[in-house]
Amino acid sequence: MTFQQHTLTLPGDAPGHSTTLYSYSIGPDTADTKVHLQAALHADEQPGTMVLHHLLPMLRDADAAGRLKARFVVFPSVNPLGLATRVLRRHIGRYDLETGINFNRRWPDLYPQIAKTLAGNLTADPKANIAAIRKAVGDWLDSQQPATAAQKLRLAVLKSAHDADIVLDLHCDDESLIHIFTSPEFLPGLQALADRMGAAATLTAEDSGGGSFDEVLPGLYRKAQQANPGFPIPMGAETATLEYRGQADTHDQTGIADAQGLFDFFADRGLIEASAAPASPAPGPTPFEATEVLRANRPGLLAYRVSLGDRVKKGDIVADLIAMDGPDAFLARTPICAGTDGFILSRASAKYAATGSSVAKIVGTDILPTRAGGYLLED
After folding, report:
1. What is the DSSP string of 165-197?
2. 3-state class of 321 per DSSP?
3. How many Å apart are CA 344 and CA 319, to the nearest integer?
4. Separation CA 259–CA 54 (nearest Å)
5. Half-sphere exposure of 361 toward its Cβ, with a 13 Å CA cutoff?
6. Would the pTM of this model clear 0.70, i.e. be above it?
7. What is each CA distance from 339 to 158, 176, 240, 283, 315, in whole angstroms?
8. 4-283: CATH superfamily
């Protein structure tokens, strides 16, 4: 049995402060495939932690039975720093309070860090090229000297993920249906994951603009391909962000079902020796640029006219914004209208909207001119 718990103490940035990062490794060290799973990078998003809570014993039991064909590394709550950021009884686990930086933004662009090292080390062997890239990244990571606790945490996570074949980052939205963010190169390969999750949408983009964790490795391999066209360089890691409904959807019942979906996906891949019933097909991929992030253009109180999953057409009223100041304060209602045809993927759980705040995401099919080539994230 190879099931092991690991701990890493992260010294804090103030005297007497430290925190512990927990992870588990399961499966044979000699396996050809490595899977990196993490949840709660946004520390106030707990559904993924519930999923991994239920997946861990499933992997442990499969390992004890000799049925694991891959090495699994699991971080059930990958951001202990964010767990501590509570202010006036509210959890502010999405941002580093010291810098204001979103924990899932500004992850490093790896290829420029290894380009010189990689020169002259590529061959006609695709597997050898992946190994060379991973070694160069690993050496660069080993050379880093992080100063702050947040930097040390990021380095530890990258050291685990950089040589993995599958990297899944478990998140949730505010109030939402299940969906996936991934790179277009990984479809149709990850369609089976969408099927097993029961995803309402799979949103694809090469670069969503924020330096998200799930885009670090695809960006690395994509840039290596572009800079070295004479050498075969596969995409060395399948990565995705898995959005498990909304923040309030942290329940045993859904966690058990979602863990089974992940387990069955790995079984489909031959990484766990197990049989699974066929999955119902999920919708195919949609460019993230075809998803409208509908925003409030003034402050007010939201009164929704639509529910999650409802289909709307361009011009349909998604919500009314009740005025909270001015001559018609608490009397006037201003409609907020859809700018595209599609379905409601997410809404805001907090109904007081500030100017510019996200009201809903509408998944359409046509790329929106205002989204093409721009910053695609809500935040």
Report:
1. SEEEEEEEESEE--EEEE-GGGTTTTHHHHHHH
2. strand
3. 12
4. 6
5. 24
6. yes
7. 38, 19, 27, 22, 6
8. Zn peptidases (3.40.630.10)
What is the spatial distance between Cα 17 and Cα 86, in angstroms, rounded to a whole number? 15
CA distances from 34 to 16, 165, 237, 238 (A): 36, 5, 10, 11
Q: How far is CA 258 from the centre of its chain?
A: 15
Give me the pLDDT at residue 350, please: 94
Q: Tell me if the domain spanning 289-363 has CATH number 3.40.50.620.
A: no
What are 328's two structure tokens? 């018609």
In the chain, what are the domain boundaries?
A: 4-283, 289-363
| Structure token digits, residue 53 | 């809570």
178 vs 363: CA distance, rounded Å: 13
CB 306 within 8 A of CB 177: no
pLDDT in tens, 316-374: 999 999 999 999 999 999 999 999 999 999 999 999 999 999 999 999 999 999 998 88
The rounded distance, in Å, linking the Cα atoms of 203 and 363 is 9
Q: How many CB atoms lie within 10 A of CB 250?
A: 19
**Residue 100, number of CB atoms within 10 A of its CB:** 7
Q: Which DSSP symbol is given to 34?
A: E
- How many angstroms separate the Cα of 173 from the Cα of each of 81, 123, 244, 360, 371? 20, 42, 7, 11, 20
The CA distance from 103 to 82, in Å, is 8
Q: Rounded to an integer, what distance in angstroms lies between the CA atom of residue 275 and that of residue 301?
A: 49
Q: Nearest CA to 55 among 267, 211, 234? A: 267
Query: Contact, 37 vs 74, CB < 8 A?
Result: yes
pLDDT averages per 10-residue partition of the chain, 379 residues: 94 92 97 98 98 98 98 98 92 93 97 95 97 98 96 98 98 98 97 98 96 98 97 98 98 98 98 95 97 96 98 98 96 97 97 96 95 87
Token pair of 4 as six digits? 């092991």
Q: Are strands 34-39 and 166-173 parallel, antiparallel or unpaired?
A: parallel
Two structure tokens written together for 85: 């950021």
CA distance 202 to 212: 16
Residue 224 phi, psi (nearest 5): -65, -40
Backbone angles phi, psi at 286, to 5 degrees: -130, 135
Under a CB-based contact definition with an 8 Å cutoff, are residues 233 and 124 in contact?
no
